[in-house]
Write a structure and sequence with these properties.
Largest sheet: 4 strands, parallel
Helix content: 25-40%
Strand content: 15-25%
Radius of gyration: 17 Å
Number of domains: 1
Distance between the termini: 14 Å
Shape: elongated
């Protein structure tokens, strides 16, 4: 079994991440591929598909939308929760970007960027789930 997710799957702030508990309770090997700050795009790159589709089952954590890009902010799946503001190249977390955007622009622009981010997230989450051909459990 493979458990795919973000910090919660990885086991941040806990002694035994849930993939370890599953391994013990089910008596089977469980590969924990939790990546801090991960969003769907993290697992749409590279060789993740081989690992996921070679498993008997895959537990897929519902990942954070803050790790998705939009026209004003580029998330970097290799840098966890960090991304780059496209206007000036500043590196920051999505939450900081959104806060600064709300301070510097009109509400209509903020709504447009949030909606764009949401659409990118939904599209990439669907692509990720469709790419997992092993039986999957959405967590």
């Amino acid at each position: 079994m493979v458990c795919l997710g973000a910090a919660q799957t990885f086991g941040r702030f806990c002694r035994e991440p849930f993939p370890e508990l599953l391994a013990r309770q089910l008596g089977m090997q469980v590969l924990n591929v939790g990546v801090a700050g991960a969003g769907p795009s993290t697992f749409l790159r590279g060789a993740w598909g081989e690992w996921l589709n070679g498993a008997e089952a895959v537990v897929v954590q519902v990942l954070a939308a803050r790790s998705e890009s939009n026209s004003l902010f580029a998330c970097d799946p290799t840098r966890g929760a960090l991304g780059v503001r496209r206007s000036d190249g500043s590196v920051m977390r999505f939450e900081t970007f959104l806060h600064l955007l709300m301070e510097s622009t009109d509400p209509a622009t903020v709504r447009r960027v949030v909606e764009e981010t949401r659409q990118n997230y939904v599209s990439n989450m669907i692509r990720l789930l469709q790419g997992v051909h092993s039986p999957k459990i959405l967590l």
